[in-house]
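Bit of a strange request maybe. I'm writing a small parser for structure token strings and I need a real example to test against, not something I typed by hand. Could someone generate the tokens for this chain?
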Amino acid sequence: MHSQITHLLIIDDDTRIRKLLSKFLIDNGFVVSSAINAEHARELLKEFVFDLLIVDVMMPGESGVEFTAWLRGVSDVPVIMLTAMGEAADRINGLESGADDYLPKPFEPRELLLRIKNIISRMRPTLKSKFIFGTFVFDTANSSLKKNGDVIQISSNEAKLLQILCNEMGNVVTREDMAKLCGGVNERTIDVQITRLRSKIEDNPKNPIHLKTMRSKGYILYA
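Reply from user aminoacidic:
Good idea to test on real output. This should exercise your parser:
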């Protein structure tokens, strides 16, 4: 499952739950961000690409149901709802707002983990595994990069960066996003690895045509 990076967002006003879930999910191989409310979540959605959201229903101000209904107007990212309410009508409201699954509190973290894995596994077969840019082919299944059929040696870190860029082909990926998705490394490390990767895929690294720097924003990979 974790051959591909999986970035989760937990939205819950309960600090204890956010911390416990974050630690549990990080320990199980996920990259995890957290938000204290719907407004905070919107800010994070502007900065990062998430694979799945875990949303508490009962939050001050905008509820999880209201937030999910809004989200469905702008994104199809999967949502698992958490709530202390267990009535059928509440579950129906959550699902009607666009949630993919519903888990009443209290719950076993392992059950949440199973539900996350089930949703991600349903999505993953539809994701591309091979990306083409110029004369290069990058296969995310085995992290191999080829140019005109010849293998180009890249490190595991370079492969991880290339996967992130390929998944967002044609879109800017911020340095902050890359750093977080690469396990929390610092942004200077990202810059160094990008320079090394660029030297392997560009005829003239100082004037790149595929892997470009967007000043004050991040990096972008063009086909």
